Amino acid sequence: MSKPHSHSGARGALLGAVLALSAAIGAAGAHETVKPLFQQALPNVPGKTFTTVIVDFPPGVEAVPHRHGDAFVYAYVLSGVVRSQLEGEPVKTYQAGQFWSEPPGAHHLATVNASATAPARLLVTFVADTGVALKVDDAPAAAH
Would you call 26 helix, strand, or coil by DSSP? Predict the structure, then answer.
């Protein structure tokens, strides 16, 4: 029989992680939105946390190139069509029901809603070091 446990601490940590993720997105000028779903420390993997969020991309919106630190990332397309590219790989297009994963340290060069008229929605799951930012945008390129 499992014992009851509180999610209030996990919710607070999730809120903090999502606010950091949202701040990174907002600072970059992109317009995707992040909605927290679940966060839980992994009891059998000390120092690691499992986090799940929904990311909504309005038509034509592209995320700034970024990394997810040492997190393992799984992205599942709930609706719409998304183009994604990791460094060293070709651009790939994913439709609703398809997914990709990103190994720890991957450089995500592109995440783009491929439609100019329809939104796209992702379910994104992270297994990351507890307490670290889930997304770090690349620094803006210097103007020439």
Answer: helix
